[in-house]
Design brief:
Keywords: Lyase, Oxidoreductase. GO terms for molecular function: lyase activity; NAD binding; oxidoreductase activity, acting on NAD(P)H; quinone binding. InterPro entries: ComplexI_49kDa-like, NADH_Q_OxRdtase_suD, NADH_quin_OxRdtase_su_C/D-like, NiFe-Hase_large. It holds the Pfam family Complex1_49kDa. It comes from Desulfotignum phosphitoxidans DSM 13687. This protein has 501 residues and is of the alpha+beta class. Among the domains are: 131 residues, no CATH class; 200 residues, Orthogonal Bundle (Cytochrome-c3 Hydrogenase, chain B), CATH 1.10.645.10. Helix content is 40%, strand content 18%. The chain contains 16 helices and 16 strands. The strands form five sheets. Strands 1, 3, 4, 5 and 6 form a five-stranded mixed beta sheet that branches. It has a four-stranded antiparallel beta sheet with strand order 2-14-15-16. A three-stranded antiparallel beta sheet has the order 9-10-11. Strand 12 and strand 13 form a beta hairpin. The radius of gyration is 22 Å and the shape is globular. The chain starts with a strand and ends with a helix.
């Protein structure tokens, strides 16, 4: 009997080699893999010559994939196994197909479905008003609701948080996103290929390198483009600089939320220093314009390498000093410890990735499990923490800051030469697939690129780590004080725009 087959991370695959299973077999095998410890990397629908199909990529100790024809209605996988729930809701919204028995069936981003099918959600709302639907409610005379957003006081994207409380205690938090209606995935299928790097590195600006790298690797795999060692090293440095800047910013924000202002101010400044190292590398503080299919657009010459080395040698003791300030303060520890716990079992059911997952005891890190670029030559330590609280999420960031500094120093200690590329997009082969994964600073980023029988993009599927992790924030608020929401929110620091594709 045909079964899910192993696929490489960032390798080319002929679509003919992906098993096309009967739906019942597809469903049974997928449930069996995930119930026995596997995780969902990609699960999406696409149309090919008028036929709607499913493609699924799962993660065990390897990546495995299979597909099938998509029925108009089917018995929900989520009803038996939680990690499928957002993927099924997303496909129902995009293509008008119904997972029968889905336990929490609501829209994800409030887009009209691509096939112009009738609404499968049976909601009495105007589709262009995301908040106009029945939120989950807790019954009782002493229950009250607190609504926050979608418009916020800060310069952030829109998102709505609906708390069901008894007194100050949160019983349930429902998070509603999807207010931007960006349509990024549809746009990726419609633009000329030369626009792909611009779109992917801007779909979540704080993850420029993470998303841009996934796109470049997918194109390189399909077009059989080799990347030289120098470019791989520069890409690795850039991804670690992105991790450093964001983790340092998050640790400073956590200190701000507990009114510990010296580290908040120090790390606010130091974050800017690391952003400026990305500026030194490629002329942009967020790394835009650096990664392109075939390599990088800027070399790491001796002068830049020398400056990087000097600046990191100068910044490292400052970072260590501020970290010591944070984690030696009993007042900080008293606020962080026990706040917003997500246990390992719940984290596994939700499919949490990145620092959020590692803080709950899940050791998964793409850099170690499915290494790309130069990570196969680097030691990436495991960072699981047992407590699953704000303190654990801060500790993971602390450890990764120090580890990223060590990685970058090891990579710039030797001369690096590379062939700078102009960024031209190579032609893509027909009927092919590439799935790429990288460990961005929030966790596993994955892109899936499928071509049709003419070599044009048939489907471009993006998954940001926030797609998994927003429900982790909701779980962290269970049975905790509503005043702890800002601190918990900062400890996850998830992306609205990475979710709202």
């Amino acid at each position: 009997m045909k079964a899910f087959i192993p696929i490489p991370n960032g390798g080319p695959i002929s679509r003919a080699d992906i098993p096309h299973l009967p739906f019942d077999t597809f469903r049974t095998q997928a449930l069996d893999i995930v119930k026995n410890g596997g995780k969902v990397v990609q699960f999406f629908a696409y149309e090919d010559h008028g036929t709607l199909k499913f493609l699924m990529v799962l993660r065990t100790h390897e990546l495995v994939a299979a597909g099938c024809d998509a029925p108009e209605t089917y018995p929900s996988l989520t009803s038996e196994c939680e990690p499928f729930h957002l993927f099924e809701r997303e496909m129902a919204e995009q293509y008008g197909i119904r997972p029968q028995g889905h336990p929490w069936f609501k829209m994800v981003r409030y887009h009209k479905n691509i096939r112009n099918k009738p609404d499968v959600f049976n909601n009495d709302y105007t589709q262009d008003i995301p908040g106009n639907y029945d939120y989950y409610q807790v019954a009782g005379d002493d229950i009250h609701e607190v609504a926050v957003g979608p418009v916020h006081a800060g310069v952030i994207e829109p998102g709505h948080f609906r708390f069901n409380c008894i007194g100050e205690r949160v019983l349930h938090l429902e998070i509603q996103l999807g207010y931007q209606h960006r349509g990024v995935e549809t746009l990726l299928q419609q633009v000329t290929p030369k626009r792909l790097p611009i779109l992917t590195e801007n779909m979540a600006g704080d993850t420029t390198i993470g998303h841009g790298l996934c796109m470049a690797q997918a194109v390189e795999a399909l077009a059989s483009v080799n990347v030289d060692d120098g470019a791989k090293i520069i890409r690795t440095i850039a991804l670690e600089l992105e991790r450093l800047a964001n983790h340092i910013g998050d640790l400073g924000a956590l200190c701000m939320d507990v009114a510990f202002l010296p580290p908040a101010n120090y790390f606010g400044r130091i974050r800017g220093d690391f952003l400026n190292l990305s500026l030194l590398l490629c002329g942009n503080r967020f790394g835009k314009g650096l990664v392109r299919p075939g390599g990088v657009r800027f070399d790491l010459n001796d002068e830049v390498r020398k400056t990087l080395n000097e600046r990191i040698a100068e910044l490292k003791p400052q970072v260590e000093h501020v970290l010591d300030l944070i984690f030696s303060a009993s007042t900080v520890r008293a606020r962080f410890e026990g706040c917003g716990r997500v246990n390992r079992e719940d984290a596994g059911h939700l499919g949490l990735v990145g620092p959020a997952g590692r803080a709950s005891g899940l050791s998964y890190d793409v850099r170690r499990w499915f290494p790309t670029e130069w990570y196969g030559y680097l030691k990436v330590p495991e960072n699981p923490k047992p407590s699953g609280d704000v303190y654990a999420r801060a500790l993971v960031r602390r450890d990764e800051v120090l580890q990223s500094l060590e990685m970058i120093q090891s990579l710039i200690d030797r001369p690096v030469t590379t062939r700078v590329v102009e960024g031209r997009m190579p032609a893509l082969p027909p009927d092919s697939l590439s799935v790429t994964l990288n460990e961005a600073w929030r966790g596993e980023v994955s892109h899936a690129l499928l071509t049709d029988d003419t070599g044009h993009i048939l489907r471009y599927k993006v998954k940001d780590p926030s797609f998994h992790n927003w429900n982790g924030l909701a779980m962290a608020l269970r049975d905790t004080g509503i005043s702890d929401f800002p601190l918990n929110n900062k400890s996850f620091n998830l992306s609205y725009c990475g979710f709202d594709l």
